[in-house]
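pls read this protein.

:::
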Amino acid sequence: MENMNDVLSWLTDHESAFSAIAALVVIFGVVFSPLGAGIRGLLSRKQAGSDTLQSGVDNPQARTNNSAANVSTGARKDDASPAKPGQSNAGQGKDRPVVAVLPLNNMSADEEQGYLAEGMTEDIITALARSADMDVIARNSTFVYRGTTPDIRQVGKDLGARYVVEGSLRKVGSGQSGERIRVTVQLIEAATGNHVWAENYDRPLSDIFAIQDEVSSGIASALGYAITVAEISAANRASTDNLDAWGLVARSLSAAFQYSHETANESVEFARQAVALDPNYAAAHARLASALIRRPANGFSEHPEQDVSEAKAAIDKAIRLAPNDAGVLAESGHVLCFSGRPDKAIPVLERALALCPSNAITIAQYGYALGVAGKLDKALDELTRAIDLLPNAQYLYRIYFWRSTILLTKGDPEAGESEGQKSISIFNGFHTPWAILAICLAVQGKTNAAKEVIIEIKRLMPDASVDRYRQNITALYPSDLPQTLDEGLHRLEEIWPKD
């Protein structure tokens, strides 16, 4: 056996030796060599194939939308069993998006990159399959398209998929610049063939395993965000009368991110309707909790204490219904943080990330909770990681706003100003980032610039006041308000217009 391909060929013909080879790989560290990379890919494909052939979705025509297999274990992702008496499966059925991830095409002559392309595809499928918000076609159903250029509309019909992910992997560069790997991925709406999202990833080919993990996580995170945005848009276009609990949850989320008094109330009402339609739907209770906690946090609540109390009850119900659901845990951490319990929020968000490590929004929520808990450097690191996982997403405005707040708390108002400017350059319709920007400017003595920002705040929130901001910010912290924030609010009060 003169080269790696001969070794891999021999392994394919001698499957009984796989366990021994795997043990040698672990014991002697072969996994860090080029041979180990090929063995890793081959072992992973053999294992995934044997598992999913037993219980995955092998017959696309027989597949239903709520029976996607988790490719990492071969087990059904959400165990779509028939509803028990008195229960329903609303929000878990045909209206939830179904995603098919086609194998990445290896555009390089190097066969080793073929193993990387397939391993990366499997990682993306596995990461997306952890989400409770979508069903993902098992790998053995999508890998039949390997090496082909199928019509995406036909793929959607064959697999019952609403979205199809396709892409390619290519090795580029040489010499002094070093070899690099370029991965191109796009998300396509199967029925129309329209492109929903696309992104390129360009990385040095110095560590093949790190590339696989980093790029797969980034793609999965961005895809999950893009699918969520597309589904919210679809739900908003649909007739309200035809929406089930899942669609109402999507509309609640959409309303929450429009940031006005009216839409904050709409977000709560859509979530209430979802809970009424299916009282056993954990995500609906979690969405209701989040919508309720956002009202006092954003200054939109007529009864703050009542909203906080109801939010706590709703998230407790969601956790009882789905104690190991990453999305529910993330919402629970969000509610805990914004009700002044960041220390309790942190371990809950860590549990959510253990279940779904590449969810950038959960990472961002984790980073903010760390910041409120006073762990400022780690908070900034986590928020930066979330930014890296969400290129070109509108949600970045919120992450930059949180970074601005934490940098101000850390005593760096100049850096806080810079992050605040980034936030409002992405989305300028939310008054709170403007308020933090005004505080950063006021602390630096940039009085005229701060007064200009206050004008914008009053346009967005006519009844805004420093007292209200102080009340909202203080509610986040279990003990005293950080000194820099307290000082900043005093500076802002000095220049706030007197009504």
